[in-house]
Amino acid sequence: MFNLTNCLILSAVLFAIGAYGVLARRNLLVVLMSVELMLNAANLTLLSFSRWFAGGGAPGGSTALAAWPSATWVTRAPDAGHIFVLISMAIAACEVAVGLALLIALFRVRQTVSTAEVAELRG
Amino acid sequence: MSASDIVFLAASIVAVGASALVVTRRNPIYSTLFMMAALAALAVIFVALEAAFLGAIQILLYAGAIMVLFVFVIMLLNPGTQELSLPRAPAWQRGSAFVMAAALLVVLASAFYRGDIKDAPAFSDPTLAVPAPPPRPVPTLEAAPGEPPPPPPAEFGTTERFADSMYRDHLVAFEAISLVILAAIAGVVVLAKRRLGDIPASARGGVGAGAGGSMVGAGSPPSEADLVAGGAPAEIAEAGLPRGARDVQLAAARLRYGHGGPSAASVGETHKS
């Protein structure tokens, strides 16, 4: 049950839910939250692969990793995925801060948080 | 079914259910609360994936900082209910969005079911046990060749190992992130300033809507002469508020700018910032 495939499937489901939120919702707050959800799904993928490669990948040694000539980074930095996730979290925090500041500026000018009412650049 | 399977299953159900509620609730406050639940469930999965430090960071940074920032912004905007809970998008938009998200899910899942990871053993499989990391050389100039190697770093995923990796191998990325955060801070301060340039009043939508009274009152502060003479300040008067609300605002303005208050210039400065 708790293996690489199911972790990746879970992250795919979360990513799809986030994509639906970005596409279907009009409230900018919820759109930002959906973007966060997609970022978290990507983080889950990174951590799953990090755990997988830290354990040596598939048993038997006949993995795609072993056939990958430039795979030495896995042995040199086995927790690089953790660093990726931390940096992605920092970027997500910056993105949310800037997005919410834009939201505040928009609300101050237009008194709305709806994407449907901010359509001046519509082609 | 082992204990880690049960934990993973429960956390997955919570994460997927809460995420589905995030994108379907009309009121964003509820979306924020369910988002916190989803993030907590994901933190549990992170811990199960031997990333305990990142699980803690997930709780602290996402649920503790980012989601609280969302709540702060919702409270700061203080919109009316009809402005906060927007009407749903038309059904054809929601349907096409669902179709596209489902297609994305199918593509991702089919990609994950191919190749060498198809029949992955469970993470609790002994063949996937995390080995002790090899000792690494100390990259200092003082490291004499005859010295014994430093003790091997601690286990995978712990804070010690994480810090070792971050400050030794990924120091440049770490410093670059601090620059990005600095730029974001500067951008946020500029964007969320009280006055965004000189926007003419005609370009502002819904000035007389009533619910935006607090936003409309953000113009220049009332002069002392106005307050002493008892006349209503122009901003409050033209906001079209009901009589009681206008009186409350006027009383608040008197308290703020009235007797013994700072001079008009300094009031303007503090009000602007």
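Residues 232 and 250 of chain B are 7 Å apart (CA to CA).
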